[in-house]
Structure formats: C-alpha cells, structure tokens
Amino acid sequence: MSGIEIFEIWIMAFVTLALFSFLYKDNPLYKIAEHVFAGLSAGYYFGLIWDTVIVTQLWQPMIGGKWELIIPGILGLLMFARFWPKYSWVSRVSLAFYMGTASGIFLTSQLHGLVLKQMQATMLPLVNGDGFGAAALAIIVVIGVISTLAYFYFSKEHTGALGVTAKVGIWFIMISFGAHFGYTVMGRVSLLIGRVQFLASDWIGSFSQIF
Amino acid sequence: MKTTIPVAVAFVAGVVLVVSFFFDEGTWVGGISQEFKIWMTIVGGFTILLGAVSITRVNWSAVQRKKEGWPYKLLTLISIFVMAIPSVLPNTWSPLFGRDVGSIYDWLFTYLDSPMMATMFATLAFYIASAAYRAFRARTAESTVLLVTATVVMLWRVPMGEAFLNMFPGDIPNWLNTYVMNGANLAVQRGIIIGAALGAASMSLRIILGIERTYMGKG
Fold first, then answer.
1. Position B46 pLDDT exceeds 80
2. C-alpha span between A129 and A125 (Å, rounded)
C-alpha cells in the first residue's frame, strides 16, 4: 500500500467518521463534513452539466455549424435574469419553454407509455394454461389495482361500495408499504455494512502500514 | 407581456410536442420535436448551473456579512470552487483538469463525495429504525399488516432470515415472492403509477393551455 493510497483511505475514514459523529450529537466535525459535502455535490453537478450539456450538446455542435442552438443558449442565459428583480420576469420565457416542452412530452408519454401499458398488463386472461395459481394472482392484481385507485379517488365521499373498495385498498396499500419499508431498511443497512466494512478492514488495515 | 409571452411560448412548445407524437421522426414535425427536446435539455442544464450559482451567491453573502456559522459557509464555497473550476478547464492544459480519471474532479468525487454520500444514506439506517419503532406499533389491524409484511420482507432479504422462514411449512419465501411482491405490491404500485400518470397528464394539459401558471412564480 503506497503513501498516497493510505492518505486516500484516511481521508475517506475521516469524512465517514465525521458524518457518523452526528449519531451522538451535532458537532463542529459533522458540520465541516456536511458543508464540504454540500459544496462538493454542487460542484459535481456544475462540472457534470457543463461537460455533458453546455460543451457537448451546445458549444461543440454550435461551432460545428448548428447555429440554431444559439436560441436555447440565449434561453438558458435568460434564466440568470432572476438575479435582477427588475428583469426577473424574462427568465419566465425560458422556464415556460422548458415546462411547455416537458408537458408536451409528458402528456403523451404518461398516457401512452404508462396508463395504457399498465392497464394492459393488469387485464390478463384467467385461463391461459398456467394453472390456478396464475389465475389467482391475476385476480389479486385486478382487485388490488382497482381498490388502490378507489382509495386515492377523493372526488366522492368514501361511503357505500366506494367505501368498501377503498377499505380493501388500504389493506393492499399497507402490504405494499410494508414491503417497501422492509426493502428500504435493508438497502440502508447494506450501505451501513459497507461503510463499517471499509472502516474495519481498509482503515484499520492501514494502521499496520503506518505504525 | 410578462405573463402572455411565457404562456404563448409554453403553448407552442407543448402543442408541437403533442402533435409530433402522431408523426414519424423523419417528418418535419418530428424533426422540430427532436430539436425542441435537445433545446429542452440545454435549457434544463442551465437551470442546474443557475442552482450552483445561486448556492454560491447565498453562501458568499453570508460570509461577507459574517452571519452565524459563516466559516462553514466559506468551506462550502471553497468546496464548490475546488470541484467545479478544474472540471470546466480543458484537460489539454493539464491531466488534473477536466473530468477524466486522474483529474481533481474525479479524485474529489471518488475519495470525498462518494464515501460521504454513502455515509449519509447509511446514517439513515439508524433514523429509519427509530421511525420504524413509531410506525410499527400494532395499534390497528392495518398497521399490523404493515408491521408483519415489513418484518417478513426484512427477514426474507437476508440469508439467515430466509433459512429461518424455510423452517416453517409452506415455502414462505416463494409465497412471499409470488403473492406479496408480484401480487399485492405490484397491484398497488400499478394503481399508484396509473393515478400519478393521469395526474401528470392532466397537469401537463393545464400547463400547455396556460391554466396552470404557478411555475412562473409571483410578480
């Protein structure tokens, strides 16, 4: 293990322990790591967008002859008008272009790519040669989808048939949320194991190289 | 003018994208739509840059006025500059510039930003445990269902827990996978996706028609 590698391991161990120190209580070491993290993340996205969007998709094609890209370039720069209150309304034009384009994409993609596809995948033939288990599963999915949608339908009071269906929906939702919670906990715990493993093997292991 | 022009721009951009759905990419309408999508990516990129500049301004102002905790904010500013400035300089000047392996940007991401991100999320494991204690108290039948499902799924996801579940008759892991994950859970996710997609589509229509204008802010 070279000196540089040991230095890198110690840097990683320092920030890891500094952030974990918050578990005891808020302290200056944690605050230092937190603010460095915030700054590095902002810098990271700045560098990423600068390279992948501004240089690759705007500047290089533009100097290659695609001069119409000056329009989104100007629209992008107009965003910065927000810093001058008198002219901040100008940034609305850029934002409106972004929102309008995104809405145009969403309107069709959400209906065609999600609603219809999900409904199609829900309505399956019960007798398809896969046996009773598959048919039971298809029925569970249909009941689950309808009752979940009924639960989230707030335009009518949940009484009568709608109320019963919404009640069934709550049970389905609780099962799903429970499963998701379980998955999330396990995901976070596996990250924790990863950090503890790093400290226990890499960092503690580097002690023998130094001392 | 402050509202009419943006609403008109949103309408034109939205209508072009909706109409282009019914045309092939090779047609002129499809071409305009493709061009608009690239333009959207570029304008969206500028919003991220705007965010970074905004963070810099806010922190710089706090440092100048020596507000409470200003040394930390100065640290944030230094971190932004140390990460961002070398990344925008061409790597033809020095291998330390740019975003390639071996650059300052890459080193800071690998040895500082990435472990800090993992630690931040790992810290949540402790807080999620205390949240679980509050959420998992079996007060009602519904919360008991949530408690049982979460516990069983957590057990199922670790080898020791799966071995424990296999001690019971009825192949519980397979039953969980079939009826809980691919049955009830799938159905609820599908219901939520359909509901959210319908909501997103109606919101998109409102934006295109100029009914929804809250994204413009006040003034």
1. yes
2. 10
Q: Do B112 and A11 touch (CB under 8 A)?
A: yes
Q: What is the DSSP string of A180-210?
A: HHHHHHHHHHHHHHHHHHIIIIIIHHHHHHH
Place of tokens 């309304």: A89
* A135 interaction partners in chain B (CB closer than 8 Å): none
d(CA A108, CA A102): 10
Q: How far is A101 from chain B (nearest CA, A)?
A: 5
Interface check B175 vs A, CB under 8 A: no
- Asked whether the predicted pLDDT for residue B59 surpasses 90, the reply is yes
B214 in any annotated domain = no
**A24 min Cα distance to partner chain B (Å):** 11
Structure-derived torsion over alpha carbons of residues B167, B173, B176, B182, reported in degrees to the nearest 10: -170
Q: Domain containing B110: what range? A: 89-123
Contact residues for A40 (Cβ-Cβ < 8 A; gap 6+): B79, B80, B82, B83, B108, B109, B112, B113, B116
In this complex, do B44 and A43 lie within 8 Å of one another by their Cβ atoms?
no
What does the pLDDT look like over B67-80, one tens digit per residue? 999 999 999 999 99
CB proximity under 8 Å: B 28-67 to A: 35-53, 55-57
Chain B residues whose CB is inside 8 A of the A57 CB are 38, 41-42, 45
- The tokens for B18 are 């909706």
A160, part of any domain: yes
Minimum distance, in Å, between the CA of residue B119 and any CA atom of chain A: 6
Tell if the CB–CB gap between B117 and A103 is shorter than 8 Å. Answer: no
- Give contacts of B217 with chain A, Cβ < 8 Å: 92
**Are B24 and B45 in the same domain?**
yes
Among candidates B46, B80, B185 on the partner chain, residue whose Cβ is nearest the Cβ of A175: B185
B174 and B158 within one domain: yes
Structural domain count, chain A: 1
Tell me what pLDDT residue B219 has: 55
Mean pLDDT, residues B26-45 taken together: 93
In tens digits, chain A (211 residues) has pLDDT values of 788 999 999 999 999 999 999 999 999 999 999 999 999 999 999 999 999 999 999 999 999 999 999 999 999 999 999 999 888 899 999 999 999 999 999 999 999 989 999 999 998 888 777 788 888 889 999 999 999 999 999 889 999 999 999 999 999 999 999 999 888 888 888 889 999 999 999 999 988 887 7
Nearest to A98 among B44, B77, B158 (CB): B44
A22 assigned to some structural domain: no
